[in-house]
Request: fold
Amino acid sequence: MTTSANGSNGPLRVVAICGSLRPGSFTRKALLVALEGAREQGAETQLLDLADYDLPLCNGSKDAASYGPDVARLRQEIGAATGIILGTPEYHGSYSGVLKNALDLTGFHEFEGKMMGLLAVSGGSMGATNALNGLRTVGRSLHAWVVPHEASIPQAWRQFDDDGNLYVTGFSQNQLWKIDKNRVASVIADYPDNDGRNGELDQPVDLAIWDDKLIISNFDLMTGEGFVNTAHSKPYTLSFIPLDEANKQQ
Reply:
């Protein structure tokens, strides 16, 4: 048994609110990965996909009944949670309008005193820091305990396979990224080399990021031995070639 945010004994319950309505949303895919991690730790989980709710625009009314049944359902499902993950794409340097409206339709009763995690995706290489900063402000305003660590996924269109699985898994406290070699044939790391050109490494690797340095370590899958190949300062970009795509090229 565990103790929930309101002090009652019961299982931990984590809900993730998807602030994207786009079919095939990368936000949704990333939140499903996050919820899988919560389930592995013994929590009950639920994805609250805002595409499944008929939410009116918030007009500031104090009459809860005037907003309709889906607002009441959303409030109830968030209110029953111990922890909440907010997920959004970054649109024009901020989080999505649909998520903003959903948050405006809820309040302290649903969020106060609860743990809140933040996740955002972007199409560009700079990540979704602005969206996350905005959501952190909202979380504090709702008196939630916003987790210091946040997840920003740049170039989200490169990060998932067709089944919604991440090509890169295993983020650890020392910032070690491990490539899932069961699904990834190679990694291409573009970086400025000593001649001012872009270099490419196109073989299975593990990647570690230390203090804005990209360190590429090659590992022998048979012996488990590896070595540091190179280290470069930013900027750099990573792309992943799935095994099925690599097989088509052979």
Observations:
- The first strand starts at residue 2 and ends at 3.
- The CA atoms of residues 103 and 138 lie 9 Å apart.
